[in-house]
Amino acid sequence: MATMIIEGDRTKAASGKTYEVRNPATGDVVDEVPAGGPADVDKAAQAAAKAFTTWSRLPANKRAEVLHKASQHMLQKVEQIAPILTREQGKTILESRIEAQRFGENIAWFADLADKIHGEHVRLPDLTTYGLVVRKPIGVCGAIVPWNFPLTLAANKVAPAIAAGNTVVLKPASTTPLATLACIEALIEGGLPEGVVNVVLGQATGEAIVSHPLIRKIALTGSTPTGKKVMASAAEGLKKVTLELGGSDPCIVLDDADLEGAARAISVGRFFNCGQACLAVKRLYVQEGAYDALLEKLVARASKLKPGNGMDKDSRMGPMHTETQRAEVEAQVKDAVDRGAKVAHGAGRPQGGDYDKGWFIEPTILEDVPDGARMWTEEVFGPALPVRRIKDLDEGLRLANDSQFGLGSSIWTTSMAAAYRAVQEIEAGYTWVNALQIAHDELPFGGTKQSGFGKEHGVEAFLQYTEEKSVVYGGI
Ligand code: NAD
């Protein structure tokens, strides 16, 4: 049975309650897990506060050294961790390897920043004084993570937090705790001191983290409704919040685009991780002259994406993570079809044999999806793509911005002027121009509008795990 990681303890829930984690491809029980609650969060927050007194005072270059060693050790375990992730989440083993690798690389990337960020010296009018702006870690940070990319999204919070000298109480999604535990355990084996990152498990621990008085900052990746609840509850304790929420990324393809490149990026962007990604091509707007050729390429690519158990090396797309999640996507597709959309590919479930044991779904492409359909107005968190013809860039930009969300966006064109307009006018935290929608370590990532605020990745993320303090030295 899995246990929580709280300082030196590998512990069950204080209540003694447990729940089962199941494999989305087979329905089999993967492990039994403690169903933690407020008492466990309290213990973890106390442990993190204790660890903060030593971790935050460690010279920054030593902290960097510890984190580099720990991440190197973790990276040697990618092959052991990846199957755990596939069994609990459903994604293909290739996707799991990439994700486990990214976890370790992210820790190393922020370790490099630990001793590179500094404050400022400020001249004051009175020359018998001088001013400083010093940067300090915040304290204990809460990290709340969803199930779609359990490792990447944990690392996005844990890595900058601990590199800056903070300590963490981490809560994975209740259905995907196991690979996260393995990653944190590997960091500890590699030399990360106990108590710097504590892992609590169970649905009820999220709210307890947000309301715990010792926890000073909350970073959440999750849905927009959860983000609103977390922000309201964090306001009680005036905590800092970073909210990485839902998205419905538009992609515009113009007549002059490299259609092969666009088809590849859109296919990866929509179907990677069985479409369960915040950053994903979720609304496609194609200019008339490119429409037929691009659609043909997209359908050809979708038809090669064989759904299957992620552990099977022939599978190109795992199952959806839960039955509810699949039902939601199927309802969105049905809504579009009922309103008159045309199925270009998929729109069903692969059936028979092992397919009937898991939450499998076909990659789906729909044409002529009418205005007002749920696929345009809601986030589609699965492998289904609505495509629409546009006359020109103006129409594409208008439709791109016709959404409550503002996370990612992309444009495919060889016109510098068109690309420039897209960068200027699309309301989103990220615009890719003729490029695959990948979040780079080096660039700050985060949304606008209902997709949240605050940044992960980049120097910006590191800074958001520090507080500035002004100092005046007098009597000189
Ligand atoms: P979710 O909002 O249901 O849950 C996310 C996490 O929050 C889970 O750990 C959950 O237990 C916890 N949680 C739920 N209610 C809480 C509360 N009241 N207080 C504290 N914690 C609470 O999201 P999900 O279904 O696990 O993930 C899918 C959503 O995440 C999608 O909307 C997706 O777009 C979004 N997402 C966003 C990003 C991004 O970076 N912007 C990345 C990945 C996923």
Task: Explain how this protein is built.
By secondary structure, the chain is of the alpha/beta class. It is 39% helix and 21% strand. The protein has 15 helices and 22 strands. It has helices at residues 38-55, 60-75, 78-89, 93-113, 150-163, 178-189, 205-211, 224-236, 259-271, 288-303, 323-338, 374-377, 393-400, 416-425, 458-463; strands spanning 4-6, 9-11, 18-22, 29-34, 120-122, 130-137, 140-144, 167-171, 197-199, 215-221, 240-244, 249-253, 281-287, 342-345, 364-367, 384-390, 405-406, 410-412, 432-433, 448-449, 452-453, 466-473. The strands form 6 sheets. The protein has a 7-stranded mixed sheet with strand order 14-15-16-13-12-18-19, with helices on both faces. Strand 7 (140-144), helix 5 and strand 8 (167-171) form a beta-alpha-beta unit. Helix 1 crosses helix 7 and helix 2 packs antiparallel against helix 4. The longest helix is centred in the first third of the chain and has 21 residues, at 93-113. The site of nicotinamide-adenine-dinucleotide has 31 residues, from helix 7, strand 10 and helix 8.
